[in-house]
Structure formats: C-alpha cells, structure tokens
Amino acid sequence: MAKPSKDKSSAGFLDRFLEVLYSFFRRFNKLFDRVVFNKAGSLIISLIASLVICIAIDYQDIRIELFNDTTTVVDLGNVNTEINLDQNKYEVSGIPSSVQVTLSGEETDIEVYQKQHPNLTVKADLSQYKEGSYIIDLALEDIPSTIKASISPATVTATITSKRTRVFSVAPEILIGAGQKASDFKTPTLSVNSVTIRSTADELNAIRFVRAIVDVSGFTSGNSAKVNANVVAYDADGNRVQVEIDPTTIEATVEREDTE
C-alpha cells in the first residue's frame, strides 16, 4: 500500500491552519464592528484608551523622577530664633535661643535661598498673643514651596508675662583693685539716688537691693575722680537679677580719705 507523500500532508495542515485563522479574524471583525459602531462600546474603548495613555504618561513622569532625582539635604545646624513680640511690654520664656534646621530640595534652590537670607532666623510669631501660655509653631522666613524645612523642635510652649515698672533706691558699692583698701576712699556720691526697673512682677518682687558698682581700681592718683558706675539689682541671696534698669550707669564722684 502506497504511503501519502509529505508534501500533500504539509499542504493539508497549512490549509486547515489558514481556514482557522480566517475564521478567527472574521469573528473578531464582526465583534469589533459591533463594539465600535455601538455607542456604549465606543465609550468603553475610549475610556480604556484614555487609561492606557494616562498610565503611560504617569510612568514616564515617575521614571524621570526616580532616575533624575537631584534632591539634596543641607544641615544648617543651630539657627537663631527671633521672637515677634513687643518685648518692652512682655517677657517671653520657653522659646530656645536656637534650633536645629535641615533643608531638602534642589541644590540650586537651596543655594539661592541661602544667598537671599544670609542672616537666616527661625521666627516665633507671638504678635497676636497676650499674657498666658501657648503652643506655637516655629517657621523659617520666606521659605519657598520647592524647599522643605525640618526644624527641631518645630513647636514650643511659650509663656508670655506682662512687664511692670518700679522705682528702686540705689546705693554705691566700691570695687577696689590690687593693693587698695576700701578704707582708702570716702563713700562715693551718686548723681542720682534711684533707678526705674522694668520686669515681671515675680522678678521685681525678688529684688532686695540695688547697687551702683563704683570701680576705683584705676584711681591711682589725685584726690578725687568721677567714675561711671554700673547699676546692678540683687535678690536676698546676693545673686544678680537680670532685669531692665534705667539708667544702666550712674556717674559717681569718688574722693580719697584724708590720711593726715
């Protein structure tokens, strides 16, 4: 019995394959026509196409952002704080004198910002507050949106206290130098005998005496001299009380004791 040739077998397979392929495309064509020429189908295709385009664009943006990221971080260290409040009327506690600041963003943006603000400070805006304690945010001045600032601490509890004034009498106190004795000099005469001190009520109440420090260490010749004496307030333990004093210095006249 004769065997079918390989050529005839191959031709039969190819014919069947082409017939199946043709049938598939014919059915796909009919389905495509139904969808495209149908209003709902057209909307679905448009939506799918839009989503594909959006995903493609977003992918490009993400890829560019990931592989072309030039973000840098600059540690500014300790930056001084600045309190926005009338400190002639109020005293503020709870705000540190400096805070840690770090900037992140494009290197060129940070460089421009630093050049524009050579004396950079962190603001504590208390202009809208009166007496009391408040939690406030600290912020850099004029920070652009392209730069992210990290401040530590970022929030603080500020206590605002009204200042008051009181008049205190002041007495001279001699400050002698090497080889001198207090008994070598008469009690200095002050040009004024009282001063006005401004501070909080607690600090004013803590003051027990006020002295004008008359430094006679440079008084080495002559019988009398005039000296500008610094005025200092002290508490009951003799510790200096940090307050605003007006005037801060008083003219004192010093005379030597008559040794004859």
UniProtKB/TrEMBL annotation:
Keyword hit for Zinc-finger = no
Record-linked InterPro entries: c-di-AMP_regulator (IPR053154), YbbR (IPR012505)
Q: Does the keyword Transmembrane helix apply?
A: yes
Gene3D superfamilies tied to this protein: 2.170.120.30, YbbR-like domain
Residue stretches spanning the membrane: 36-59
What keywords does the record list, in alphabetical order? Membrane, Transmembrane, Transmembrane helix
Extract the PANTHER family matched here: CDAA REGULATORY PROTEIN CDAR
Q: Please identify the protein, giving its name as recorded.
A: YbbR-like protein
